[in-house]
Amino acid sequence: MYRSTGFPVYQLYLQGSLHSPMLKWQSGIQTGRYLMRFVLLVILVRLVRDTSIRMMYPFLNDYAQGLGVSLATMGGLLMLRTGLVGLAPLFGHRADRIGPKPLLMAGFGLQGAGLLMMGLASGVWTAAAAILVLGVSDAITYPLMQAYISEQSPPHRLGRALITVEYSWAITGIVILPIIGWLIGEMGWQTPFRVLSLFSGMAILILAFMLPPSHAHPGQGKEAFWHQIGRIVRDRSAVGSVLVSATIFIAAEAYFVTWGAHLARDFALPPERIGQVAAG
């Protein structure tokens, strides 16, 4: 029945017009118990994303041995994944018009595909292809998750909402990394990737049917992408923020890769023990 309007059906879906969440939500900004429920559901979704990142570093040697590559090569692949986050402005430009939620669903779809590819990889080139897909998914999910939280939270509760969602990172280290180590020790290094690809699908379902729709702004984002980039480049505060964030990312990546190599070379711990050490 939408065909007669001349408005594409897929755009109606992206804007949330063709489906309603299974849970009741406030229109616009969430407050009170609605905000609490929103944050808890976002934490569940974030757990999937954070696990896909944190599981890479402590078990670096197991992945390298499974792929038949050196630790240096495996570390280079992880640096490639981090570098692809630089593509984020491309997706942010689109999110300005349709809202972050549809792109988040696409990002988790790519994450699930990349994890499955990694779970089936047999060499450096197949692993590199998987890492490329995962890198693009990170460029979507990392910034747009923040945008989604921001648009659904009232300004005076935004800081608390963002900080509370960061508990996901801690839960991943304390609870999930030991499970990852056990899976690797008992079922092989590719098992966590395959399992997590299924959870990526569950994250998409939570986004699609349980979380509130995005706030679409069709009138925004009409300015050409490169014009927006030009305005950012001319803003010294924006450029400074980008450079500081990039430096922090590079430093953190170097630390985590070195830490993973250190655990493998100097302690020769089995994956089960590495998971316990990582949780500590």
Radius of gyration: 20 Å
Protein structure class:
mainly alpha
Q: Strand count, sense and closure of the main sheet? A: none
CATH fold name: Growth Hormone, Chain: A
How many independent structural domains?
A: 1
Would you report the number of β strands? 0
Distance between the termini: 57 Å
**Helical percent range?**
over 70%
Number of separate helices: 13
Q: Give the CATH architecture.
A: Up-down Bundle
CATH class: Mainly Alpha
Overall, the morphology is globular
Protein model, in words:
- The protein has 280 residues and is mainly α.
- It has a single domain, classed as Growth Hormone, Chain: A, CATH 1.20.1250.
- It is 75% helix and 0% strand.
- It is built from 13 helices and no strands.
- The chain has helices spanning 9-14, 32-54, 60-67, 71-83, 88-98, 100-120, 124-152, 158-165, 167-187, 191-209, 225-233, 236-267, 271-279.
- α2 packs antiparallel against α7, α5 crosses α6 and α5 (88-98) runs parallel beside α7.
- The chain is globular.
- The termini are far apart.
Describe the secondary structure blueprint for this structure.
Blueprint: H1 9-14, H2 32-54, H3 60-67, H4 71-83, H5 88-98, H6 100-120, H7 124-152, H8 158-165, H9 167-187, H10 191-209, H11 225-233, H12 236-267, H13 271-279
